[in-house]
Write a structure and sequence with these properties.
This protein has 6 helices and no strands. The chain is mostly helical and 209 residues long.
Length: 209
């Protein structure tokens, strides 16, 4: 069952803009990986520009929601847009923190961060499938379970592998250690935002069953 009680452009516009925020996040992840290899200033500026465009898209969603969907659905949809906007903020902050790091990551840390980003991309693709179900109908429960399982996997990588590795990592100063930890926190936190968006959309789905 679709939540589209009315086949109107306003409802479709909200869903399309949520999809756009997901595509912006995927593009920013791709750019961040390139930036980590090159530290090319043009790539950093592009990541910042995408975050600014995300602010505008989120604003448009809030405005459109004033006249779209039933009132009891608007809170979850507005919150979903805010959370997706947070993912773009996290990617921008991660890139800006990486700019401050003097050296490159060693192979172990680089591989673990690449793995977290790869799983995060997969989570975004599942979130896009959630929007398909919201728009066209279908079974949401298995997709939500996939997202939650992947979020737990990232938590496990962070707590049992990255964090334990960082504890024993030698750094040259307090600030180098703080910037490194803040960078990783911004990367890992994205999976929490994706899970929270899935939960918000799940609430709407359950109300329409």
């Amino acid at each position: 069952m679709s939540i589209f009680l009315f086949e109107r452009d306003d409802e479709k516009g909200v869903i399309d803009n949520l999809r756009l925020l997901i595509q912006m996040s995927l593009k920013s992840i791709e750019l961040l990986k390139e930036y980590m290899d090159s530290k090319d200033e043009k790539i950093l500026k592009e990541i910042i520009k995408i975050e600014e465009e995300g602010d505008e898209t989120t604003k448009n969603i809030r405005i459109t929601l004033e006249k779209a969907f039933l009132p009891n659905m608007r809170r979850e949809l507005s919150r979903s847009a805010e959370l997706l906007d947070e993912t773009l903020d996290s990617l921008k902050h991660a890139a800006m923190l990486y700019e401050l790091l003097k050296g490159e990551f060693d192979k172990y840390l680089k591989d673990e961060i690449d793995l977290v980003l790869m799983i995060t991309v997969d989570m975004f693709e599942h979130l896009d499938r959630v929007l398909d179900v919201i728009e066209k109908g279908g079974d949401l429960d298995p997709i939500i379970k996939e997202i939650k399982d992947k979020e737990k996997f990232i938590d496990d990588i962070y707590q049992n592998r990255i964090y334990k590795y960082l504890v024993n990592l030698k750094v040259s100063s307090f600030w180098e250690g703080k910037i490194l930890c803040d960078f990783i926190d911004n990367i890992v936190n994205i999976s929490d935002y994706i899970e929270d968006v899935a939960d918000e959309l799940h609430i709407i789905y359950l109300h329409t069953k």
